[in-house]
Specification:
The chain is α/β, with parallel strands linked by helices and 204 residues long. It has 7 helices and 11 strands. The protein has a 7-stranded mixed β-sheet with strand order 5-2-1-6-7-11-10, sandwiched between helices. Strands 3-4 form a two-stranded antiparallel sheet. Helix 1 packs parallel to helix 6. The longest helix has 14 residues. The chain is globular.
Length: 204
């Protein structure tokens, strides 16, 4: 099997764990996944927490990857109004083999129309803030992650790790996902409907 091209979209004030939690899991299989960081500009991008990440490719020179990872973070509130980034997601990102988001990254997918007519979820603590960006999305208030065709959206922050293991299981098989969790000494949540962090007042 050819290596899967996995592109992670970065923007100022992205959430560190949204990015590096999933990439830790995918990175355990370097023969299967080619991990790349992409952004609007070529300069290093600062996370919400401060550390910066270097960029492998700018958006205008990045073809549709096999797997696209869109993190959340404070910066999503600004980037929903960034025509270059949203336009790339709409024109190029939608042609990716798998489109994934973590936390409030779903706001960017929703704004680009990627989630129109699909089920999706987002960070429960920001649920009421993010869901208006997708008026044509069937938002799921209780889910660790939601898969609808080629689009997979995860809940808040650490849920991205569980989602990435689900993608690994889909691409490489369940045993590979179990191995990754074991190597990371991570207790995986393998049930997408098991959302212990959903707000109590949220409707099922």
């Amino acid at each position: 099997m050819a290596r899967q091209r996995l592109a992670t979209l970065l923007f100022p004030e992205f959430e560190l764990l949204d990015v590096f939690g999933p990439l830790e899991m995918f990175g355990m299989f370097p023969e299967e996944f080619d991990l790349r960081m992409i952004a609007e500009g070529a300069e290093p991008v600062a996370s919400t927490q401060g550390p910066r990440s270097t960029i492998d490719s700018v958006l205008e020179k990045t073809p549709a990857p096999d797997i696209l990872l869109v993190p959340g973070g404070r910066g999503t509130r600004r980037e929903v109004d960034n025509p270059a980034l949203i336009g790339w997601l709409r024109e190029v990102g939608m042609r990716s083999g798998l489109i994934t988001s973590v936390c409030t990254g779903s706001a960017l997918l929703a704004r680009a129309g990627v989630l129109d007519g699909r089920r999706a979820t987002t960070n429960k603590l920001a649920f009421d803030e993010i869901t208006p960006f997708g008026p044509n999305t069937d938002w799921v208030s209780r889910a660790r992650w939601v898969e609808d065709g080629p689009v997979i959206t995860a809940s808040g922050v650490s849920a991205g790790i569980d989602m990435s293991l689900a993608v690994i299981a889909q691409v490489l098989g369940p045993e590979a996902a179990r191995d990754a969790a074991l190597w990371a000494e991570y207790e995986a949540n393998t049930d997408p409907d098991n959302d212990p962090f959903a707000l109590q007042e949220a409707t099922p």
